[in-house]
Records
---
Amino acid sequence: MLKVVAAEKPFWDVPAEGYIFLLPQDFQISKDLKHVQEYYPHLERVLKRHKFTGKKGQQFALTAVRDEKLVQFLFLGLGKLEGVWHEELEKLRRVVGSAVLTMKRRTIADAVVRVPRSKPFGVNTQELAKQIATAAGMADYEFITFKTDKKDKERKATLHLVADKDISNAIGEAQILIDSINTIRQLVDMPANVVTPTYMANFAKKMAKKRGLKCKVIERAEAEKLGMGGFCAVDVGSDQDGKFIVLEYQVAKSAPTIALVGKGVTFDTGGISLKPSQYMKGMKYDMASSAAVLGAMDVIAQLKPKVNVVSVTPMVENMPSGKATRQDDIVTFMNGKTSEIESTDAEGRLILADALVYVEKMFKPDVIVDSATLTGACPVALGHYFSGLMTKDEALAKELVECGKATGDRVWPLPLHDDFKRAIRSDVADIVNSGIRAYGGQTITAGWFLAHFVEKTPWAHLDIAGTASDVPDISYVGKGATGASLRLFVEYVMRYKKKKSK
Ligand code: BES
Ligand code: ZN
Ligand code: ZN
């Protein structure tokens, strides 16, 4: 476990095993590495010989004896820092991520790093410190819950951040974020024989109690009474009880309300439309959005913005069985609309439909944002570095894109255009739950399905099927669950407060 702290002393006064230097390509030895030169008078030649120029991604290490202890100097290249601010910020996160991985590999228990000059990153020193700390904390995550030899990997480490401004609040916020992100990543990585809807409901209840949030878990019988035909149709095939979790953070009755909705399928076999086994692998990740929403609520409860936030996370397991929903079945949702079931594997939109209707009806929120590992087509279109963003509200789209740039939890718009609307028409019900093949655009037609369940509230839909897990080449994200949508949601909520209180 890595703890990130604001250093209480100047850089060289922090007693550490590692001294980390984040160096732009134009760094000056006499200025940036003066003290190192005292240990290595020929530093310039040494760096030259090893071709360390500060180029992006370069790494180099030296060892020295300092106060009779062995210390390591770790040099990392930041590149030219001439790019657009959010690209530089993301690059910095990755450099920090590799620094943390190197710390781990070299078993450095405490290290110190200076927050670089903030200008190229488009944020102030505090925000930059927060981004560095968050990336460091995320890089430290490993899913070792079920490894019996994990003792070795559980070693404690500390990273001290030095800045020329007070960054203690920023680091405090980062620590809250890190704890929640890594907790929910673990939830997402844990297999479905452990993480059932009941497990998720208990997690939410415990968290709500700890943070003073209102928590309500709607059981299947009540969901039936409420007319949640979509939720029940997916739940009915499993021996696990579905749970419809509602959390409320209320700061003031008069404050605006943001609604967050997250798909929670603890395992997606496809149901009767059973997935071939190579596509079923990884379907424990199908509750990633619900975990991100719960994690965001955990953070929000601690950061206490001046805006109300309510979350709805329907939890089910999508299984085939003698009781399971069939193809051709027709279900009726909470708002009275009907859908033909063309594929029981398009289950996410069925549970989300009722979640959207419920949240709009019960809370009359000012805005709704949902997240879902909704379609395999999304990573085909966008790959693994951007979540799909669908909304008709341009201002909302712009805001979410900005939040993505600021946090690294990035989103890219897809057209929720009227041309796709007819792709979910049905001969026998109001709509059908899988888009007519000829239209293509399965990610968009899934978005259109959801659009039928939001009546008048500004609403955006995020498809995180590609970003929730197994994203290659991002050092601070690593293997398995990424925590996608959590940072984005928190940022969106924290910014919303500022705008409304003007
Ligand atoms: N959970 C899947 C989507 C998914 C696929 C997430 C791959 C992550 C990786 C979803 O429930 C699903 O199966 N969607 C179908 C919809 C289709 C039947 C209309 C899909 O994308 O194939
Ligand atoms: Zn499915
Ligand atoms: Zn699914």
Note: The mean pLDDT is 97.
---
Amino acid sequence: MKVAVVKETAPGERRVALVPEAVTKLRAAGLEILVESGAGDDAWVSDDAFTEAGASIVAREELSQAADAIVMVGRPDEQVMAGLRPGQAVLGMLTPLGDPDFAQRLAGTGVTAISLDLIPRTLPRAQSMDALTSQANIAGYKAAILAADTFGRFFPLLITAAGTARPARVLVLGTGVAGLQAIGTARRLGAVVSAYDVRPETKTEVESLGGTFIELTSVGPASGEGGYARALTEEERQAQQDELAGHIARHDVVITTAQVPGRRPPLLVTGDALKSMAAGSVIVDMGASALGGNVAGSQPGETVVTENGVTVVGAGSLPSSMPAAASAMYARNISSLLLYLVKDGSLTVDLSDDLQRGVVITYEGRVVHPSLGGATQEAEPPGQPESAGGTDVDGASD
Ligand code: NAD
């Protein structure tokens, strides 16, 4: 079976789906690895390093034709989409939820599309494949580093002949994977850290990292399904913003990481809360998105300074800003998933398996993922899937 790594072409994307260490592991399992020339350049992985690990370097045109499975970090770009053929597998963080048209397009090509951002995270055997967690860890670490770099004062307590600097007071809002990593990193830099989440069960984790958990009196627990938060009601949202504003005003640095699945990120730092912060304060908004973020007015990839001197950093793709570490971790995730799916030299789909049901979006020309309408949505007939070295069936999808 031939597995091909494409060069990412999305703006600002510097990661690569496999690194030489993962190539060696996959080769030992009998897979042939093709790498698009220059695929690892932005992550400081040369074509030579891939070759030494046993991969073949190929041009993009050959790669699409030859591959049984194409692996990537994000979505296939238009050129890759145009070259897809029935029976081929495509693996990446395809983010199909909320974009049924994209899922239908993939189904129309006849590929088996597998999305790493949908790995069922609570399954113990899926932990090594959990790309959301690996990339969120990197993002949380980088958010704290970015905040420290932007802040015009010290994070740690510093006693010198030229004076004493008090430690920075850092507030982390949202204590999932990224938030906890941000807390740990800010603590290691010497800051005094407080944190808040609508899921009170995260309190012990915050405290184990040396942070102080803030409990709001005006908003009750809002734990939702699967370990995620539920969306707040309008009244809860207002009460949360008002009570949080008092805490925000007392901190030098705020790092926001709050997300609710399938919703725009909740607004936690309002315009009024921003005005209450001292000049020189810093906010890093990891929730910044085109739809709006955790902080009023933040934009992904943009830094603004408010009239009262607060620097608001709208985080873009923080994992991409650490491409070597992020690629190495992602490569471990995607190679674990590949090794799980490959049986007797070909990628085998079994939709009776809960892990596979969680990640397989399209199969044999249909959208099969339960969150995208399951097997009910038919696409244009893609032709017959190829079985040799391609996608075999084991367990019915329809
Ligand atoms: P996420 O990125 O969806 O959200 C980040 C945090 O924002 C969450 O902690 C959430 O509670 C919080 N949040 C949402 N709305 C908020 C609001 N209005 N105010 C304050 N905070 C708000 O979360 P995540 O990091 O992906 O983690 C989600 C869950 O998945 C957690 O329970 C985590 O422990 C769990 N998880 C489990 C495993 C595993 O079992 N192997 C692996 C990874 C994550």
Note: The CA atoms of residues 259 and 265 lie 5 Å apart.
